[in-house]
Design brief:
With about 350 residues, this protein is an alpha+beta fold. It is built from twelve helices and 18 strands.
Length: about 350
């Protein structure tokens, strides 16, 4: 074993999917080492970080005045610079669970339509969190690699990555993005629609966590074979006291209809703008769905109905992006070819 391979054996390179809802960290040679919500709880009095990730999520909507639970990422980009840096430091330390002396090379995924300023914010946050080199890669590209699509071949691959803050749609051929579009309608927007719908229809106020729970358990994009109902608890807006209401999958589908239509329309626009040779490939290969939003019941069916194309769900939609980024760590040539300046 020469020195170089010994060095790579102790390699501390990390791939990070810095998501609006969840952050996943992949350590080279070890797989996914962190998978936690992108939330930080901060004590306003002392400015100390009280909790990060899962612990902080438990606190959402339940904190006393002195503690705030902050989601530093909004629509796939950094909304709070300092908090993101704290969060990255925490996750990097957790991934290495050892000394602070390490300066890992880090690959971070970003949505396709973000500005230079937003890109710089991501890069600087990582550098300030002690990274030695930072590579930025488009989320859709990482998702396609993670889903096992043959992106280096001269044929069209279409991937739709529905995350928490953004839905990224891309057509990829020869390791390059031929067309990409990012719409800021995804998981979080769906949760918000459910909150507003229940407020309007049942005069009931529910929190973010409850809304997410409803989406996961009863949310769907096309009618289900069997009806599902769910009891939800919240605050009655008229009487101001806690109350329980039963809702059906039909109601939740109505609440989500605008968000789903936006995503489906973006897919149709992407198909319209794809060069004909690549369109022919997509007819054969179909569309691959990744991201947490891909888990919405019957979403594949709905996209199939609207486009007439075969639609497949990636094997592990929640971690496709970070797994794809992880594969790039092992293939520096590919990484250099597809990372953004």
């Amino acid at each position: 074993m020469n020195l170089r391979s010994l060095f790579s054996f102790f390699s501390n390179d990390l791939a990070i999917d810095l998501g609006t809802a969840n952050t996943l960290v992949y350590a080279r040679g070890r797989g996914i080492v962190v998978d936690e919500p992108s939330i930080v709880a901060i004590n306003k009095v002392t400015n100390r970080v009280e909790a990060v990730g899962r612990e902080a999520k438990e606190m959402l909507g339940r904190t006393p005045g002195s503690i705030v639970a902050i989601k530093p990422m909004k629509d796939g980009v950094i909304a709070d610079f300092d908090v993101t840096e704290e969060m990255l430091k925490y996750f990097i330390r957790k991934a290495h669970n050892r000394s602070h002396l390490l300066s890992p090379r880090i690959v971070i995924c970003i949505p396709s339509e973000i500005t230079q300023v937003e890109k710089r914010a991501v890069r600087e946050s990582a550098l300030r969190a002690k990274a030695s080199e930072v590579y930025l890669v488009e989320e859709a590209m990482a998702a396609a690699i993670g889903a096992g699509m043959p992106i280096t071949e001269p044929s069209g691959n279409m991937v739709v990555d529905i995350g928490g803050g953004t839905s990224d749609i891309a057509v990829i051929s020869l390791s390059g993005i031929v067309y990409s579009r990012s719409v800021r309608v995804a998981g979080n927007e769906m949760d918000e629609s459910i909150i507003q719908y229940i407020k309007r229809k049942h005069n009931l106020l529910i929190g973010e966590r409850t809304a997410e729970d409803i989406k996961i358990k009863v949310g769907s994009a096309a009618p289900l074979e069997e009806r599902i109902t769910m009891e939800i608890k919240g605050r009655d807006l008229i009487e101001g006291i806690p109350k329980t209401v039963t809702i059906t999958d039909e109601e939740v589908r109505e609440a989500l209809s605008d968000s789903i239509t936006t995503i489906v329309n973006a897919i149709r626009v992407a198909l319209e703008r794809t060069p004909p040779e690549l369109s022919a490939d997509i007819v054969d290969k179909g569309i691959v769905l990744t991201g947490g939003g891909a888990l919405l019941k019957n979403l594949d069916l709905r996209i199939k109905q609207e486009t007439g194309l075969p639609v497949f769900l990636a094997e592990d939609p929640l971690s496709s992006v970070v797994l794809g980024t992880g594969k790039m760590l092992a293939d520096m040539a590919l990484l250099k070819r597809i990372s953004l300046e």
